[in-house]
Amino acid sequence: MNCEFFKNNILDFYYNDCNNDTSLKMREHIARCHECAALYGKMAAVLGSADPVKEAAPDAFYYTRLSSKMDRVHQMPVYTRWLMQAAKPLLAASFVIFGVFVGYKIYDKLQQIKPVNANNISADIAEVQLADEYMLKADSEEILNTYFFNE
Ligand SMILES: [Zn+2]
From the CA of 31, how far away is ligand 1's center (Å)? Predict the structure, then answer.
């Protein structure tokens, strides 16, 4: 394994399209060769899987952590990685739906609030008085028969 071979296969390696033998050799190379590890780090940052802040200022253990992270990602079953990819937009969508729902509830509550003033209070009193006046005249059995049993 030389650097030329590594660079030629770096994209296949990133997308886990190498065969097991090549993949193992690539991992061995990246663990030894800091130049290729840095290249891989930059490429992974551009493709969105590595933290670009860490990549900009690598510490002594950066490449060790990078290769162990890569090992973990590569050891994951395909469906787990697919689920992790699928979970991101789903999570974003559920935040949007939740936000709309909360916004609607707040709007709904604001619509229900009546300002307390003399007009509204006297309107409420008039409504209750009207109800009392008419309800007293009607027998409750008559109301049931009229409105619910159509007799
Ligand atoms: Zn190299």
Answer: 9
